[in-house]
Amino acid sequence: MKNTLIIIGHPHFDKSIANKAIIEILKDKIKLEKLDSNIRFRNLIELYPNYKIDIPAEQDALIWADNIVLQFPFYWYNVPAILKIWMDEVLEYGFAYGKTGDKMKGKNLLLSFTTGGPEESYTQGGRNNFEISSLLNPHKQTSNLMGCNFLDPVCSHSMINLPNISTELDELNEKSKIHANQIFNTINNL
Ligand SMILES: Cc1cc2nc3c(=O)[nH]c(=O)nc-3n(C[C@H](O)[C@H](O)[C@H](O)COP(=O)(O)O)c2cc1C
């Protein structure tokens, strides 16, 4: 397997249900398949509880990787702030773009995320008005600009467990398993 870096961008990972489950299932699978040396995880909120990103450390981690997975919960139709700050600061001029900024070139980029809204809400005229693929266009173009290969995103919907708007925990776990397997198979086949 090629070197794969999984960046976890969840501001409250300790309270997460869906993203935490996906990561735990992925870690178990990686251990089982003895692929630990090829896959690294960086949990941003654990590394940077004060949102002060170590830019050289993050860039080194990216340079090592052939595949980059961004794992996050969908917040306001985008990535959470901790991951946006990471993008703004780490994917800087001269590193990710610009005349000499070619360090991301040729890498595979995979967005892996969960939404609270159901799948049918992400349609024209639906509650969320836009298809997920349209909402991700800025990320797709960011990837293009960096010369990355933007893989088909993996998204699981209705991943919320709150009073009134909830999916049963058993179902959440089942969906997390399917999601984690999809990520594993995607990176394993690259
Ligand atoms: C600040 C905030 C913004 C959110 N914005 C959206 C959104 O735009 N669309 C959506 O479908 N769900 C939204 N949600 C729901 C989260 O995506 C959902 O709770 C998350 O995917 C569940 O994953 P977790 O258990 O790992 O936290 C939002 C939640 C929060 C707290």
Please trace the helix and strand order, writing H or E for each element: EHEHHEHEHHEEH
Structural class: alpha/beta
> What share of residues is helical?
25-40%
Radius of gyration: 16 Å
Mean pLDDT across all residues, rounded? Answer: 96
Major sheet details: 6 strands, parallel
User: Which consecutive residue ranges, at least 5 long each, have pLDDT under 50?
Assistant: none
H/I helix tally = 7
Features:
190 residues; alpha/beta; Rossmann fold; 6-stranded parallel sheet; binds flavin mononucleotide
Brief rundown of the structure:
The chain has 190 residues and is α/β, with parallel strands linked by helices. 38% of the residues lie in helices and 15% in strands. It contains seven helices and six strands; from the N terminus they run βαβααβαβααββα.
Could you please describe the fold and organization of this structure?
The protein is of the alpha/beta class. The protein has one domain: 3-Layer(aba) Sandwich (Rossmann fold). It contains 7 helices and 6 strands; from the N terminus they run βαβααβαβααββα. Strands 1, 2, 3, 4, 5 and 6 form a 6-stranded parallel beta sheet that branches. Helix 4 (81-90) links the parallel strand 3 (67-73) and strand 4 (108-114). Helix 1 packs across helix 7. The mean pLDDT is 96. The chain binds flavin mononucleotide (FMN).
